[in-house]
Amino acid sequence: MKVLLATGNQAKKERYGNLLRDIGYEVISLKDINLKLEVDENGDNPLENAIIKATAYYKATQIPTIAQDDGLFIDKFPVEKQPGTHVRRVGGRELTDDEALKYYTEELKKVGGESRAVWKRGLAFVNDTGQVYSLETEDEIHFVSKPCEIISKGYPLSSIGFVKARNKYTVELSAEEAEEEYKEYYTKIREFFKRI
């Protein structure tokens, strides 16, 4: 089944394409269909935003649509600095990969150079009849203020995410190591799509 991933982020398209290919989904992105749509993601949490986005893109295209939204909560950040659902939006504008990396690096330095954090993820799928399915997940991560020299296009914070057990930055993990580290999350996504 061909499904639209409501993002222009090619790294996300590749991730979902790899996750879902073996269970019968062909993932295309907004860039593949040359679609730009302004969606007011005004939900109170990542799941609400994912549902809003998936529904809007399905209505515009009539293609079954997947949308994901993330919320980031960093333990040592004060309330007013919590990214929440605005991980890339700071000071009223969308940050580039380099700007996001610089911003979080500087903020981490202000709180001692490292912190535990939690990614809260909302995933929504609107099928070919317009029915909405959803999934919420959480993953713990550790951030450090000294970034890795490797920067992953589309995922800049993987350059400051650090896996202590492997003594590696997230961006340095091999495909096999990443599969092991995120096995629970990837399994939840695959099982979610197998059920619907």
Summarize the structure.
By secondary structure, this protein is an alpha/beta fold.
How does this model look, in words?
Strands 2-1-3-6-7 form a five-stranded mixed beta sheet. The chain is α/β, with parallel strands linked by helices. The protein has helices at 10-20, 46-61, 97-110, 175-181, 183-195, and strands at 2-5, 26-29, 65-74, 89-90, 93-94, 114-126, 132-144, 162-163, 168-169. The mean pLDDT is 94. The two termini are 12 Å apart. Helix content is 31%, strand content 27%. The protein is globular. It has a single domain, classed as Maf protein.
Itemize the secondary structure elements and their pairings.
Elements: E1 2-5, H1 10-20, E2 26-29, H2 46-61, E3 65-74, E4 89-90, E5 93-94, H3 97-110, E6 114-126, E7 132-144, E8 162-163, E9 168-169, H4 175-181, H5 183-195
Parallel strand pairs: 1-2, 1-3
Antiparallel strand pairs: 3-6, 4-5, 6-7, 8-9
Specify Rg, calculated over alpha carbons. Answer: 17 Å
How many beta-strand segments? 9
Average pLDDT value? 94
Tell me the CATH architecture: Alpha-Beta Complex
The helix fraction, in percent, is 25-40%
Shape: globular
Can you identify the CATH class? Answer: Alpha Beta
What keyword list fits this structure?
196 residues, globular, alpha/beta, 5-stranded mixed beta sheet, single chain, Maf protein, 9 strands, two-stranded antiparallel ribbon, 31% helix, 5 helices
